[in-house]
Write a structure and sequence with these properties.
Layout: H1 3-31, H2 35-44, H3 50-70, H4 74-93, H5 109-133
Length: 134
């Protein structure tokens, strides 16, 4: 298998895994009854209409994940997910330190990994699309 094809397959696998991660995150929040508490957290953090914002974010995790897995609007959706995760780092995880488990709890290491992965996917797909147009 040629190098470019292997790289392409690798990016597709990563994109689908990232999409599934976000879909599961949104579905789990709904199933656990966590949308309303998330909305309360957003409101207490100074965001207007926290309940509706929480539903919008949760809905985007599911719909955006499906769109990303299907390979549509990849750079845009990946960038939105990266921004969402950066906000999670700023609002929650940074104050808990780096580690998610082990030497800490609820830290930012996993979110940073996801942000970098989403940015890599966005850049790779943007470059691929740019080359196809020229």
């Amino acid at each position: 298998m040629e190098k470019a094809r292997r790289q392409n397959i690798s990016l597709v696998v990563l994109r689908i895994f990232l999409a599934a991660t976000m879909i599961i995150h949104g579905v789990a929040r709904i199933n656990a009854g966590g949308v309303a508490p998330f909305g309360e957290f957003l409101t207490s953090s100074g965001f207007p209409l926290g309940f509706y914002l929480a539903w919008g974010i949760t809905g985007f995790e599911i719909a955006g994940g499906i769109i990303l897995a299907a390979g549509y609007f990849v750079p845009l959706v990946a960038l939105i997910f990266a921004v969402q995760l950066i906000m999670g780092i700023v609002l929650v995880h940074a104050r808990e330190g780096w580690f998610v488990v082990g030497l800490g709890r609820n830290g930012m290491e996993y979110s940073v990994l996801l942000v970098v992965s989403f940015l890599a996917i966005a850049f790779a797909h943007y470059e691929t699309e740019r080359r196809r147009r020229f």
